């Protein structure tokens, strides 16, 4: 049994929620059967933490995960898109602004783009193969030396825009489902960004890929939606900051890019999807593999609860939490407990994603921090939002300080 301390961080994205009538007034965390998380909560330190400054809610996941890794988002956040671009291996030019480019489903009846309703932020999670055809056609027809389209995964793609002249708030489409586009367009009907989105609808709505999708009873990816613009960030290396060799296990490009900028190793996970049907077992195996390769700190991100909440899938959100507990948290705990004399585990959502609205929130979230050999006697028997806020007096307003707190325990 090795003596060097190891730290595992597990982030079920968007796991926190509010009470749901269909769950008997319980939250998904409260309703889920998660014996490993509950065991660690009983023997660890629990508290509430706020990871998203109120004015940064439009980029909740990027802001929160940056903070969980110990970086003050007010200093280091430049938006999620530069991180996603890095994950795709893209080199940003000095005057480039990166945009997240969703392939989304908008309603078709309205003649004016701003009157259209945002039906699905991810076009039924369009396959990457179909998306690649659309993105390449968009780049050929609408791209230029200044504006370039790049394929990511499923509905998540990147536009790099050199000398982009604008600066304003953008809204992620996942937060405005069922809303009319006009109330959330970044500048108004005359803006070049909006015009590009309008032109994308004209190109995509009758595209052969979407004709085939309609025939298969799938939603068409009939418009792009640009959001989260950002320039290249400067993030201190994680190992220099904490003296720990770090690794990231994730599917979504945002988290992978964050790991790249922080100088961490980024593991590839076969079968990972970024949704409910991801390969949970392979994520645990990848995390264990990183420890066995010499990592001291492994950050495991699971998108499934967040996607289930966006789609308002109550049962799947509960089940995704149970899957994370059974197939990721428990195997990681068993491995660390049998292999190392000294280890810690930190488990927490990055932000709430509410089933009631399908949207992100900047509300505080519960965390549990467990250290082998220093088991506490907390009053938490079910790790969830209500039990932690009621029974713990720990509240971290600056969530980016939580990792320092965990290292100090």
Task: Supply the key terms.
409 residues, alpha/beta, Alkaline Phosphatase, subunit A, 2 domains, five-stranded antiparallel β-sheet, 15 helices, 35% helix, 19% strand, globular
Category from helices, strands and their pairing: alpha/beta
Question: Regarding CATH, which class of the largest domain?
Answer: Alpha Beta
Give the strand order, joined by hyphens, for the main sheet: 9-8-10-1-11-14-2-15
User: Please, how many helices?
Assistant: 15
SSE inventory with pairings:
Layout: E1 6-12, H1 28-31, H2 35-42, E2 45-49, H3 60-68, H4 73-76, H5 80-87, E3 96-106, E4 118-120, H6 128-142, E5 147-153, E6 156-162, H7 192-204, H8 208-215, E7 223-230, H9 238-242, E8 246-249, H10 253-261, E9 265-267, H11 280-292, E10 297-302, H12 304-310, H13 314-339, E11 343-347, E12 353-354, E13 359-360, E14 365-371, H14 385-391, E15 395-396, H15 402-408
Parallel strand pairs: 1-10, 1-11, 2-15, 8-9, 8-10
Antiparallel strand pairs: 2-14, 3-4, 3-6, 3-7, 5-6, 11-14, 12-13
């Amino acid at each position: 049994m090795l003596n060097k301390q190891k730290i595992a961080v597990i982030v079920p994205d968007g796991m926190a929620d509010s009470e749901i009538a269909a769950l008997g007034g319980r939250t998904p965390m409260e309703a889920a059967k998660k014996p490993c998380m509950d065991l660690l909560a009983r023997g660890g330190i629990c508290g509430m933490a706020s990871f998203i400054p109120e004015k940064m809610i439009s980029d909740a996941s990027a802001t929160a995960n940056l903070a969980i890794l110990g970086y003050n988002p007010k200093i280091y956040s430049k938006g999620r898109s530069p991180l996603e671009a890095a994950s795709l291996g893209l080199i940003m030019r000095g005057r480039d602004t990166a945009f997240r480019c969703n392939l989304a489903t908008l309603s078709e009846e309205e003649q004016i783009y701003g009157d259209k309703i945002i039906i699905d932020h991810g076009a039924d999670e369009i396959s990457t193969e179909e998306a690649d055809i659309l993105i390449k056609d968009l780049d050929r027809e609408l791209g230029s030396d200044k504006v370039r389209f790049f394929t990511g995964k499923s509905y998540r793609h990147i536009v790099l825009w050199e000398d982009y002249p604008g600066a304003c708030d953008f809204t992620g489409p996942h937060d405005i489902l069922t809303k009319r586009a006009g109330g959330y367009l970044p500048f108004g009907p005359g803006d070049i960004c909006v015009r590009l989105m309008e032109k994308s609808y004209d190109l995509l709505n009758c595209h052969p890929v979407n004709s085939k999708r309609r025939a298969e009873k799938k939603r068409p990816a009939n418009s792009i939606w640009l959001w989260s613009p950002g320039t290249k960030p400067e993030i201190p290396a994680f190992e220099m900051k904490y003296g720990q060799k770090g690794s990231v296990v994730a599917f979504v490009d945002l988290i992978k890019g964050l790991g790249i900028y922080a100088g961490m190793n980024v593991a590839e996970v076969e079968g990972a999807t970024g949704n409910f049907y991801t390969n949970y077992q392979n994520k645990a195996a990848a995390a264990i593999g990183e420890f066995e390769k010499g990592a001291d700190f492994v950050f495991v991100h699971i998108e499934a609860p967040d996607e289930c909440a966006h789609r308002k899938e109550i049962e799947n959100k509960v089940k995704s939490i149970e899957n994370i507990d059974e197939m990721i948290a428990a195997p990681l705990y068993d491995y660390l407990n049998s292999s190392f004399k000294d280890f810690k585990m930190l488990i927490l959502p990055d932000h709430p994603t509410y089933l009631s609205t399908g949207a992100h929130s900047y509300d505080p979230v519960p965390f549990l921090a467990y250290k082998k050999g220093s088991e506490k006697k907390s009053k938490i028997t079910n790790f969830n939002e209500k039990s932690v806020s009621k029974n713990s007096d720990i509240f971290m307003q600056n969530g980016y300080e939580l990792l320092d707190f965990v290292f100090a325990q």
